Amino acid sequence: MTSYEIRSMVERDIPQIAQIEKAVFNAPWSEAAFRSELHDNAMALYLVLTDDRQPDEVLGYCGLWKIFDEGHITNIAVRPEHQGKKLGKMLLHAMINWAWSNEMKHVTLEVRVGNDRAITLYKNTGFVEAGVRPGYYDAGREDALIMWLHRDEPDSDGRRHEAKKGGCIDV
């Protein structure tokens, strides 16, 4: 049985992350962009997912910008050969749990309106549609769906509830 680890991105992960970007996205971020995120953007957090069989191979990653009490998911991707194994879901849940544990009250993201698989993942996690950014992707050729997840208020015992039944749990 494979065990997975989710940890913070480090410099040596960047070439693999850029490689995944190129394989997954039409307009991929460059290695320089990820280096800037790691070294120059104090508001950025990037998580990577590896497995115990090849701990130096990045299988997927997720990025978030901390903006006051909100987290903005910048990108999330899994190597094409590892898609369909719920690794994206693991990364998304880890990032949301990190946001909740760091006192964020909301998490937002944009997703291509035609990316049904990602939209289903986000909806199943508790994200709700909030609007559309016309022409956001590919120089105006595809719209982005704006989605939000709002952390539930604590109950009378101070415990946090699930963001959505079956979704992410606050830690």
Provide key terms for this protein.
Aminopeptidase; 7 strands; about 170 residues; disordered C terminus; single chain; alpha+beta; 4 helices; about 35% strand; 7-stranded mixed beta sheet
CATH structural architecture: 3-Layer(aba) Sandwich
Unreliable segments of 5+ consecutive residues? 153-171
* Helix proportion: 25-40%
Measured distance between first and last alpha carbons: 25 Å
Describe this structure in words.
The chain has 171 residues and is α+β, with helices and mostly antiparallel strands. It has one domain: Gcn5-related N-acetyltransferase (GNAT) (Aminopeptidase, 3-Layer(aba) Sandwich), CATH 3.40.630.30. The protein has 4 helices and 7 strands; from the N terminus they run βααβββαβαββ. The protein has helices spanning 14-24, 31-40, 87-101, 116-125, and strands at 4-8, 44-51, 60-67, 70-78, 106-112, 128-137, 142-150. The protein has a 7-stranded mixed beta sheet with strand order 1-2-3-4-5-7-6, sandwiched between helices.
Spell out the blueprint of helices and strands.
Layout: E1 4-8, H1 14-24, H2 31-40, E2 44-51, E3 60-67, E4 70-78, H3 87-101, E5 106-112, H4 116-125, E6 128-137, E7 142-150
Parallel strand pairs: 4-5
Antiparallel strand pairs: 1-2, 2-3, 3-4, 5-7, 6-7
In short:
This protein has four helices and seven strands, in the order βααβββαβαββ. The chain is of the alpha+beta class. The C terminus is likely disordered.
